[in-house]
Amino acid sequence: MMFRMIAIVAGLGLALSATAEAQTPRKGGTIRMTAPYGSSFTSMDIHTTQRAQDEIVAKGLHRSLYIWDSAEGKPVPELAKEVIVSGGGLVHTFKLRDDAYFHHGRKMTADDVIWSFNRIMDGTKAYPGARFVRVIEGAAEVEKGQTKEISGLKKIDDFTLEMKLTEKVDPGFYFFTALTSIYPADEGAKEGFIQKPIGLGPFRFVEHVPGSRVVMERWDRFYKPGKPYADKLIVSIMGEAAARDVAFRNKEIDTSVLGPAQYVAYQADPNLKGTIAEVAEVFTRHMGMNPTFKPFADKRVRQAINHAIDTDLIISKLVKNKAYRATSWLPLTSTSPLYDKTMKPYAFDPAKAKQLLADAGYPTGFEFEWTTSQNESWGLPIVEAIIPMLDRVGIKVKVKQVETAVLADAIKKGDFQAYVYSMSTGPDPQAALKCFYSSTPQSACNYTTFKNSDFDKMIDEAGQTDDAAKRTQLLQKANALLYDEAPVWFFNYNKAVMAVQPWLKGIQLNATELTHQNVEDLWVDETSPAK
Amino acid sequence: MLAFLIRRILQTVPTVLAVVLVIFVLFSVVPGSIVSSMNDDGRGPTDPQVVERMKKQLGLDDPVYVRFGAYIAKLATGDLGTSFRTREPVTTMLAKRMWPTLQLIFAAMTFAIVIGVPLGFVAALKPGSIVDTISMVLAVSGLSMAKFWLGLLLMYLFALKLGWLPSFGYGDGGLKYLILPAVTLGVSPMALLARTTRAAVLEIMTADFVRTARSKGMSETRVVKWHVMRNALVIILTTIGLQFGALMGQAVVVEKLFSWPGIGSLLVDSVLQRDIPAVQGSIFVVVLFFLATNMLIDVLYGVIDPRIRYA
């Protein structure tokens, strides 16, 4: 069933790209995207925020050293023409573009990259991108205030930059999000920058109406010839799904993100069915179990919970098939070489669950507190459906409902017996698995304080090897170990679903976040009602 | 009059201070913080070092009384602090949001007054008639209907089905973008005004001075115009004042639904992300608006009815 769905996704992706390729992109028009995640944009200074909502705008305004290539399923150089690796995989020399112009007309140079990364490491400002830039040698010293400049960044000439890393990692995974956008050194330091941001993106800033929209217009000196196609890009904040639905049907917006109920409705409507674009995103929904709560310290209890829940039924009836069954931690992405298709999810088997509980010394079960948010896809409705399933094997659940922000806080502090959450598990598989590394703090992402020496060894070896095939094998083994240890109930991988108007072309099935589109590749045909 | 105004202004000070204290304490004890909300969409791990630096930078590690003291000291100079979320002054944020909210509530109140007051009058002048029944059914429906639901219905009808108006957004701030959110927000006060006006007029119509006026041979039109309307206005004005002041708070739902860039949507976003300075600033403005509106109504009482003194 799952692989049939993968095929559908892949097929849809092919259909979308084939359609886009078959037609000549039209110049002009306005693209009207929506920012569907509820809140206003945090800031026009994208270095300060890591919310998905804000990056939708940043995809128009800014550029980083790398960019996510949805077709390849990996980050590729963007502001660099070439990257030469030396020094045992620790030194990366970037031959930067000499045709990238900031929106105020100045050409980007290596100084701007250095300035931007030094800014991100300013310890007094606590920029969230510091967690990425810290991989550069000497960055941590800047963060601590011991020095002003990152020693691992060296300007060879205006368009050549040498970057020395502290770990043997693919810098693409570290420098492709907007958190590490390159700012113009001279303008970025000015106070008014936050009001009128300047970037290297395909669109330049025109207007921000806080709480309503951001308007951008085509940047004619964008470095990709002929792009962007559209004259204007408008991103409207539309957190209410029902309002978004009306606006989409009324042709006032070009994209809308769909929840489970709308997904079903759109599939059933012949006029809307063709507008759906979907992709398996790199988010794993799960129930984390705290081993300091005695029953959860026993692997058999955690496995019993995985067997006791009819996960397929929940995905089908409650999530309306807007998700893929999780088989372990690493997400299902059609391009990921790491996803092990041979792995099977835990079977729904209450008898086996009871047996495991009895073996673990809980023949009559136990009671635990489950902390959850109200989220319709992985929150309270799911927990409520699971309660009778766990009850069948003798496990009683006491529900503790909190806001999402409070849930995030409780998870990081370990203030839970069990929680249910959706967590980014990509695109870097090594980083995703490192959340279960024994020395990773709970406050970072090792929420279940997982400790396993075999697992640590595999992660260490994967980090040291230069052999890509061996690394893949090691990480697959580590992922399989997690499956067996079951620190979480493996629920599902998110299926992101977006409705796209028929006149908007070039949508990319971005597994890291479907709403994050490389907007220079989008175009609208002449049937678009927006001129 | 001046003494009255000064006294009223001074009376608002303890009210404002009490509100500020309550909000401050409330958001100091509720779980969650700006730091946790920053990553509540689960995008990537949180960096503990960044979290610690952020807490220090925002003063979140300081005791509540220290933070409250600092806030009051700033407030006394007109500084509402710096937003945790956007890192810009709260006064700047509020200034950007003020005009759209004022546009919305003035439009909503205009709709409420223009429809509600005449409806109440007509209903009261012909009690028990079909007009009375219909207007009161409308009024009760308007009071009962949730704004979110009503807004969606209006969007569906006037945007999707009839295609007359845009369903969302601020656009250029023009009238066509304002109508649907203003009507959604204005229906409830309109209904209340209709009912209040009807009740007030019905009561006044049976008052001794009205009977006296009629017995003197005054025409019904003149009775209504000179005696009923003027006396009913004090009650109507009180309702308008209370509703007007409360509308800024009620605009929260409507602004979120219609993507209207006002203080209401700022407040919701700030609460959800625990941006305490922005929450305090937004509520501060809402409270000030409520108090100012009520003070204005008190002044207007004297204009309408000279018997009312500002003693």
From TrEMBL, chain B:
Topological type in the membrane: Multi-pass membrane protein
Transport found in the keyword field: yes
GO terms classed as biological process: transmembrane transport
Chief place of localization: membrane
Protein location: Cell membrane
GO cellular component assignments: plasma membrane
The organism's place on the tree of life at top rank: Bacteria
Residue stretches spanning the membrane: 12-34, 102-125, 137-158, 178-195, 232-253, 283-304
Keyword annotations: Cell membrane, Membrane, Transmembrane, Transmembrane helix, Transport
InterPro entries reported for this sequence: BPD_transp_1_N, MetI-like, MetI-like_sf
Pfam family name, one: BPD_transp_1_N
Ranges where the ABC transmembrane type-1 domain occurs: 98-301
Family (UniProt): Belongs to the binding-protein-dependent transport system permease family.
PANTHER family to which the protein is assigned, alphabetical: DIPEPTIDE TRANSPORT SYSTEM PERMEASE PROTEIN DPPB-RELATED (PTHR43163), GLUTATHIONE TRANSPORT SYSTEM PERMEASE PROTEIN GSIC (PTHR43163:SF5)
Functional summary from the UniProt entry: Part of the ABC transporter complex GsiABCD involved in glutathione import. Probably responsible for the translocation of the substrate across the membrane.
Protein name per its UniProtKB record: Glutathione transport system permease protein GsiC
Species of origin: Bradyrhizobium lablabi
